[in-house]
Amino acid sequence: MLHSKIAGIGMYVPEQVISNQDLTKYMDTSDSWIQERTGIKERRFAKRTGETTASMGVEAAKVAMKRAGTTAQEIDFIVFATLSPDYYFPGCGVLVQRALKMKEIGALDVRNQCSGFIYALSVADQFIKSGMYKNILVIGSEKHSFGLDLSTRGRNVSVIFGDGAGAVVLQPATGEKQGILSTHLHSDGESAEMLAMYNPGTHANFWTDRKLADFEDAEMADMFMSHAMIDHAQNFPFMDGPTVFKKAVVKMPEVVMEALAANQLVPADIDMLIPHQANLRISQFVQQQLGLRDDQVYNNIQQYGNTTAASIPIALNEAWEKGKIKAGDLVCLASFGSGFTWGSALLRW
Ligand code: UT7
After folding, report:
1. How many structural domains compose the chain?
2. Same domain for 159 and 269?
3. Partner of 167 for a Cys bridge, out of 60, 118, 287, 338, CB 3.0 to 4.6 A?
4. Residue 212's pLDDT is what?
């Protein structure tokens, strides 16, 4: 049976480093609070102009394609995961197709936030398995810095996020036991409003009985985007951090165990776990739950913050570049985030 492998991987992060101390210029926070609660020391912010979610994705893609020994002309499908697209529509996939002067191939955008990369990888894996495509570009990229409330009001969300992009090229695997062994995707929409950006949107107060009590103003209730929404800072993401945290530390170990069980493996078999970089405390909790040693888990949230759909390919790329992942290693990717959605992928490198 056909299966897919990561033939090339790349990443791109903007040059501009924003330290925790830098954030104190805009909001009431501190380096010690951020480090203690999240592990984050610094993050990257893209240039205000000239650097976008799609353009960063293009840069990561160039590296991935070069390492895969393929050209943009040979790519036959694009899957682009992001929650911070260049346009509300169309998606970023077509912008990559244009920027890289690719053939008139299909371009699909995936909207699964922190789980976006694993969802995108899973979709691409199915296309390779079915024999439909042979060279798929999978990108996760975010320019969060453009949509964060950097005042004290938004500090619980804004200190976490950073910008960046990661990409892989998926191709059919030649070796029987190489490549993606399985992917596992889940969702539970019950808490959709616990980590969400409500506007612009078509909800028109439809969910008021749930969590959107702030939308009492008539103008806010029935508009896609209005002055009142901006006046009430309703154009920024909302997160109930503790609720997300509590669910993440249950669902991430669970979905790793699901992947291992599906392949008759156990945690001790994992050579490298790449958890979505949401919060170092979450990664440490997951590591502890699974009984993994430090050398079995890779974290780089300290340097980049949470880059949502880009966090897994960025961490995977770095771990591989540092020689922490070698041919034949068992690599597990796992994520949890807005939706809620979560997922895992098990790979033989
Ligand atoms: O990748 C997507 C998925 N997202 C996640 O997985 C995030 C999961 N959640 C988290 O990582 C944590 O909940 C946060 C890091 C977001 C927040 O940490 P926490 O320990 O849960 O803090 P909290 O929200 O319960 O707030 C505790 C206190 C509050 O003050 P009071 O009410 O105790 O006086 C907040 O106002 O900390 C305050 N606070 C801050 N103080 C300084 C919140 N944000 C900040 C800040 N700086 N940036």
Report:
1. 3
2. no
3. 60
4. 53
Q: Is 29 in the pocket of ligand 1 (CB under 6 A)?
A: yes
With residue 284 as reference, give the H or E element that holds it: helix 280-290
Ligand 1 neighbourhood includes 252 CB (under 6 angstroms): no
122 lies in some domain:
yes
Work out the pLDDT band at 223, boundaries 50, 70, 90. Answer: confident
Query: Does 234 reside within a domain?
Result: no
Statement to judge: residues 208 and 303 lie in one domain: no
Pairing type for strands 77-81 and 136-142 reads parallel
Q: At 199, is the pLDDT very low, low, confident or very high (cuts 50, 70, 90)?
A: confident
Q: Does residue 74 sit in the same domain as residue 36?
A: yes
**Angstrom distance (rounded) from CA 58 to CA 55:** 5
Whether 311 is in the pocket of ligand 1, judged by its Cβ within 6 Å, is: no
- Positions annotated as catalytic residues are 114, 276, 306
In a shared domain, residues 298 and 166: no
CA of 305 to the centre of ligand 1 (A): 14
Of 28, 165, 37, which Cα lies nearest the Cα of 99? 165
223 and 253, same structural domain? no
Tell whether ligand 1 has an atom less than 6 A from the beta carbon of residue 241.
yes
Quick check: 168 pLDDT over 60? yes
Q: Is residue 130 part of a domain?
A: yes
User: CA geometry: angle at 14 spanning 9 and 16, to 5°?
Assistant: 150
204 and 121 both lie in a single domain: no
Could you list the residue range(s) of the whole structural domain that residue 210 is in? 199-228
For residue 157, the ligand 1 atom closest to its alpha carbon is: 16
Q: How far is ligand 1, taken at its centre, from the CA of residue 329, in Å?
A: 36
Inform me whether the pLDDT recorded for 208 exceeds 60.
no
220 and 252 fall within a common domain? no
C-alpha 188 to ligand 1 mean position (Å):
22
Residues 79 and 22 in one domain: yes
In ligand 1, the atom with minimum distance to the C-alpha of 308 is 1
Q: Is the whole-model pTM more than 0.90? A: yes
Does ligand 1 lie within 6 Å of residue 337's CB atom? yes
Q: Report which protein residue has its CA nearest ligand 1's atom 9.
A: 241
